[in-house]
Amino acid sequence: MAVWATVFLEFWKRRRAVIAYDWDLIDWEEEEICVVIAAVFGIVIYRVVTVSTFAAFKWALIRNNSQVATTGTAVCINFCIIMLLNVLYEKVALLLTNLEQPRTESEWENSFTLKMFLFQFVNLNSSTFYIAFFLGRFTGHPGAYLRLINRWRLEECHPSGCLIDLCMQMGIIMVLKQTWNNFMELGYPLIQNWWTRRKVRQERGPERKISFPQWEKDYNLQPMNAYGLFDEYLEMILQFGFTTIFVAAFPLAPLLALLNNIIEIRLDAYKFVTQWRRPLASRAKDIGIWYGILEGIGILSVITNAFVIAITSDFIPRLVYAYKYGPCAGQGEAGQKCMVGYVNASLSVFRISDFENRSEPESDGSEFSGTPLKYCRYRDYRDPPHSLVPYGYTLQFWHVLAARLAFIIVFEHLVFCIKHLISYLIPDLPKDLRDRMRREKYLIQEMMYEAELERLQKERKERKKNGKAHHNEWP
Asked: Which of 22, 142, 314, 441 could form a disulfide with 350 if both were Cys (CB 3.0 to 4.6 A apart)?
């Protein structure tokens, strides 16, 4: 996906150059985030409280799937908060941009665009970053859990890993947001135009059955919003980020984006032709600051996917076990047979008598094994209770941590080298366009030379005619 993002941007450069040349625009030039943190913290508290409530629910279906139920409801609430905050951020971005008092219209547009993107990007992705990199990282361990206001345990990842929670978060948010955007883009103008026609017919009274002339029908359509295509650009840029930044956790994101864009093209065509007044054309050399934002997202996607693969997934722990601790340790192999015993090696031993009073199990497990259980297992790399440092980190933990950091550094440098190589190999201008521009420049220079030569020859003839010829003239 990092390579695709680079190829996409490089080919967009070429396409932009062709469009700018066809429209004769090659040489044309134009004359708070703290609320997001509070919202994310509120969602964290909701998840912490709800997971314990669902775990004690009377219905076995909800009790056995408390983690999934908590994640699903939290994502839906988070989506509602995102939509509400987007309205607020537009007003804040507009206020901050006006306070800056930019000198030109292009500077105002760039400043407003950057602020709106940052606000909405953080608003849309803050909870996703929390799940990917913070959920379950600071919960403590059995016997020493960290608690919120000394009451609720901090939420942990699903037993299968945090990728499940991250995948659910991205899938639900992406589907809901695309559905909502498509409804608002088409449904809102339809309702407004219906209401406008209804008011006009009521004002006409007895003449309301008379059909309106075409110019009046066009005038009664909705005007294009004050920011032009800003909302369209913003939607596509946010989708580009959502598709590339966490693609390692949600590989279906590009497919959902493709399906949405196929529908979006037709909806936009219908909206522009039938629901909006004809927009006023304005000249632009390129997409402006949006291209820089796309490049920034491409760089961020490499970093986040490196961290998702190294930290959120089990890719690195499995490799460390296969090469260092598994049956094939020291043999340079990492096949399926080398993973025998991995689950057991990823679990630590806990003595049940070391539980806190508030965390003691309701039964001693004798109904399963016939005798009371003395030990249980949990997912972590910690020493057993009878070691010199009970529940301290094992050597395998530090091996996994070092491998994760090494993978992040190697992965980022490798992908960035590939990105820069691709950028270097793909020229910004297509060869046929470059040849056309050179020929056009040559013809212009030739025409200017011939025109200047014709002017000088004409002046020379006039001087000769008037008897004022000079011998040092340029021939």
From this structure: 142
